[in-house]
Structure formats: C-alpha cells, structure tokens
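W.,

You were right to be curious about this one. When I first looked at the sequence I had no strong expectations either way, so I just let the prediction run and decided to look at it fresh. Below is the sequence, 483 residues in total, followed by the output.
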Amino acid sequence: MKPTILLLAGILMLALCAEGKSSRRVPANEPATLRVHDALFPAPYGAVRIGGYLGEKLDLCIDNRLMAQDIERLVQPFRDKPDGNWGFRSEFWGKWFTAAMMGYGYAPSAEHRATVDRAVRELMATQSADGYIGTYPDSCHLGDWDIWGRKYVLLGLLAYYDQTKEIAALEAARRVADHLIAEAGPGSGTNIAATGWIGWKGLASCSVLEPIALLYQRTGEKRYLDFARHIVRSWDEPNRLAPAGLRLIQEAIGETAPWKMSGAPKAYEMMSCFEGLCELYRVTAEPLYLEAVQRLVDALVRDEIMIAGSGSVAEIWCHGAVRQSEPLYQGMETCVTATWMKLMYQMLRLTGDSRCADRLETSLYNALLGAMSPRGEWWAYYSGLMGERVHSHQQFPDVVMSCCVANGPRGLMITPSWAAMTGPDGVALNLYAPLQAEVATPDGQSLKIDMQTVYPADGRVRIAVGLPKSEAFALRLRIPQWS
C-alpha cells in the first residue's frame, strides 16, 4: 500500500524551496544561550489537535492516567524520606508531572491547570532550606537512586516553568541544582559517575546532564554549563563502579556494540545520558556530541531495536535485533520504548531526518500503544513480541506506581509536538492522522492545516491548507519508510 496524498491548496503558493529567504527564522521564544538551532521546531502547545484512533488514545491517557493521579501519594515520600540508601520513589513525581504538563498543553482547561498547579505547589513545599528536594534522608544523599530522582524533580519544575513562566518554579529548580553542585559538582571531590546503584555504573546519576543543560539554556548562568561539562568529563574517569570509566562518547563513536559498552548496557539510563548530550550540544555546538548521539542511534537501529519499535531484555541491551525471534524473557520494557521515542524526537528536531519520524511512528503504533491498557489508566512493564501482556506490578505500594506506568505517557504525549513541525524554510508534516493544526510560516503567517485520513488502516490522506495571503515556502510531507 502506498499513501496517496491529495493536497488542496486554496490561496497557498507552494514551493519546494523558499527563494529569497536570506535569514534563518527561529521561534521568538528560543533561548539566547543556544549556539545550535534545530532543523525542525515542535508545534506549540495547543497548536495540534488529533482525532481518530490516536486522538482517542491521547484523551484516554490524559483523562484516566495523567489527570486522575493521586498527587498526595507521589508527594508524601518527599516529606517522609523513606528511601534510605536504596529506593527510587523520587522519580515518580517528575515522570508523571512532565507527561501531565504535556497533557495540559495539549488539552488546556481550568481543571487541568488546577491539577498541575497543585502538584508543583505541594512538591516545592517539601524543599529544604539548603535546596534539596528528594526522598533520601540527609545521611544518605548521593545514594543509589538519589541523583536520578533529583533529575526528574528538575525536569518537572522546568516543564512547569516553560509553560507558565512562574519564576518560583525556576527558582526552586535553581536551588535543587545548586545543592547538587555543592555535593557532586566541580570542586566537591565527588565523581558523579561513581554514584548510583552499582549495577548500572553511574549511568542513572549522569543522566542529570539533561535538566542541568536545560537549566543553563533558560538562565544563562555559567555554573550550570560548567557542571554539565563536568558531568561529561566524568565519563572518562575510571572509578569504583566502572574501572575503565563509562567512555560513552568514545565507545559510541567507535561503534562499540551497545550491549558491549564499558558502562552497563542498561538501555533506558544509557539513552537518557545521550538525551542530555543533545541538550548540551545545543549550547556548545561541539560536533563530537552530535556525532556520538548519531552513532549510538545507528548502532541501536542496527543491533537492538526490534520490529515493534523497542528493545532490551530485562531492561538491558541484548543484541535484540538479531535475537527478537527467540522467546525472550521480559522483552521491550516500556521505559525503553518511551526513552527511545524521546531520543528520536531529539534527533528529529536536531537533524530534520524523516527516518526519525518513521521510527517514532513504528514505536507509537506498536510497542508503545501495545503496552497501554485499553482505558489508558495503566501500562504493561514489558511488551514482548510473543506472550501475554499484563499490567505492570506496583514497585512501591505506598506510591501505587511503577516506572513504566509513569514513563509510558511521556512517550505518548510528545506525539502532538512532532506531528506538525516548522523549519527555517517551511512546514513539515510527520504524522498522518485526522488532525487540525495551526503553525507559523517562515513569514510569520498562520497556516491552518486540516488532515482527513484513517491512516494507517488506509493509505489515502487528504490535506487542506489555508493562509491569509499567498507565500512561497516548503511543505514537506513524510514518505513513510515502509512505502
């Protein structure tokens, strides 16, 4: 089946190249700290509305999982600090909240705003005088999952600030980061890559690179850039957990098979570190960083990602592209699926390569939605290619949550952002679904898009576009890789 696209252009003048465009137009809200501008920019929150099968799944996830969350259960561990030297209750608030903020952005309402306002207000109320927000007592800071949890606190606070511009959230994030720098930053005497649970050799702690780079993007405060660089340097330092060092950049560029890399081949945490490298690349323009991410992606496509768009066995890279026809125990963790999709979203933004959208589509329709319960209130932990898919267990009954239940919505809720994107010379449509979108053209006009289709059940797609006045620009329509 080949997709047939009927483009109805009323007052639109369409050109493959926008002639005479001498300057690169970027969104007005792009941080001044960026040295690299994306090839494609996500649609603003509220600019895309999706119907049909996908739209129903988005709505179910928002209504029955994200906005139905018992906030008190997620916040109480930050008050009680029950995790001691082990435990990761601190990840759940941030995972849930980043998805909830995307849900609010997609379907804004007074009720949804009240939910996210309450969640961030109650979390910030747990911040200690020194800036710490976490579930570890003072004597156990930097314990197995402590920095990992702080990462998700930071991501949640920044997600709230990005949409609401509430300075209190940004200030809380600053204080969390400053406290972490005092404990594990330059001059602290602590190698951050030597913290975290021994099994994953510092990968979880080092993934805090992502929110630290994002915090620098939003504040321009040099100490955050210095800390981000410090984290990356730590990857090359031998330590008690990884005697040869993590060597993430060198081994990615050297095309070491992911399941053989010096650091633990833990799929989720490894990709999270490379998500952070994408954000650091945006503010440094260091080509080695982008090359490392691209080489890792190439290796994962070649060696690990299975036909359904996910990978791993028991959360670990396993040469799954070759072994996927075997009866694999605990295959395709939902956390891996969501993080793989988020990494593809990063690379779609940075490179404009439509193959990233192909992979997003494969993962979305197969591994990700296959892990979501019919009503959207829960998710499967593993979704192997054979066998029964069951609801994830609760890792912490007091929180009533598991990592994959918190993470699955994060992969799903990025969908509106990559469905329709803008670039310096025009607009890219990456997702075929019943949808309406309104995005800006290179000249700043409002382009309205109305798409009618039952794709992928049928290959016919009808797209109507409309502008106040004619303009020459590129309209890029993804040709699916399977076609």
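Here's what jumped out at me. The CA atoms of residues 79 and 126 lie 6 Å apart. And, maybe more interesting for your project: The longest strand covers residues 446-453.

Coffee later to discuss?

I.
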